[in-house]
Amino acid sequence: MLLDTHAWIWYLNGAEALSNSAREAIASAMAERTLSVSTISCWEVHMLAARGRLRLSIDSRQWTRRATRLPFIDYVAPDDAILAESVYLPGAFHRDPADRIIVATARILGCPVISADAKIQAYPFVDVVW
Fold it and tell me: What are φ and ψ of residue 37, in 5° steps?
C-alpha cells in the first residue's frame, strides 16, 4: 500500500480527513508491514511548506526527518525503473511530476495508492483506495 503525499501527512498528523476505507487499508498494511511512501513526498512536503500551502507545527525538514525514521513505513526512493515508468505511463495522465512518480511507484511495486486526488482516482492504470 502506497500513501499519496496528502494521505501520508493526514495520517501522521492524525487528521480526520482520511476516509474510513483509507484508515482500514493503512491499518491492514501496517499489520502486514507493507505500508510505503515515495520519497518524492518529502520533496512535496518541503515545497508545500515553503510556498505556505502547508502549515506544520515544526519546520518541514524536522517533520520529514522524524517521519522517515518511523519503523512501520517503508520509504521508496525513485530508481531508474520508477523514473522510466513515470515518463511512459500508459494512457493519459496529467503532467505533475510528483503524482507521476507516486503512480509509477505504485505500478512498479504492484500495490494500490491511498489517495483522495481525483486525477489519480480517475487514472485507470493504478488501483486507488479511498
Answer: -140, 135
All 3 cell numbers of residue 2?
502506497
Q: CATH no. for residue 42? A: 3.40.50.1010
What phi, psi does 96 have (nearest 5°)? -55, 115
Q: Which residues contact 3 (CB under 8 A, 6 or more apart)?
A: 11, 26, 35, 36, 37, 41, 73, 113, 114
Number of domains in the chain: 1
64-77 residue pLDDT tens: 999 999 999 999 99
Cell of 34: 507493507
pLDDT surpasses 90 at 94: yes
Location of C-alpha cell 505556505:
52
